[in-house]
Specification:
Elements (H helix, E strand, L loop, with lengths): L8 H8 L7 E6 L7 E7 L2 E7 L15
Antiparallel strand pairs: 1-2, 2-3
Length: 67
């Protein structure tokens, strides 16, 4: 499975507070992918893919950053 970083529902809610995409209803890891942790995310505003870029990625190369 391509989930290298586990995320609790509470951590997810804290992350989503920084974005205007609604409140999390559910999320689960996605098996596809080889370098990042990917999750299927369902909010009250729609479905999203959450990608957590792992430490080996340079932050300036990421399309979005909250760090």
């Amino acid at each position: 499975m391509a989930v290298y970083t586990e995320v609790s529902f509470e951590e997810l809610e804290g992350l989503l507070d920084q974005y205007d995409i609604g409140e999390a209803l559910s999320f689960k890891g996605i098996a596809e992918g080889i370098e990042n942790s990917n999750f299927y995310l369902q909010t009250d505003r729609g479905a999203f893919i959450l990608t957590l870029y792992e430490k080996r990625v340079r932050p300036r190369t990421c399309p979005f950053s909250w760090a």
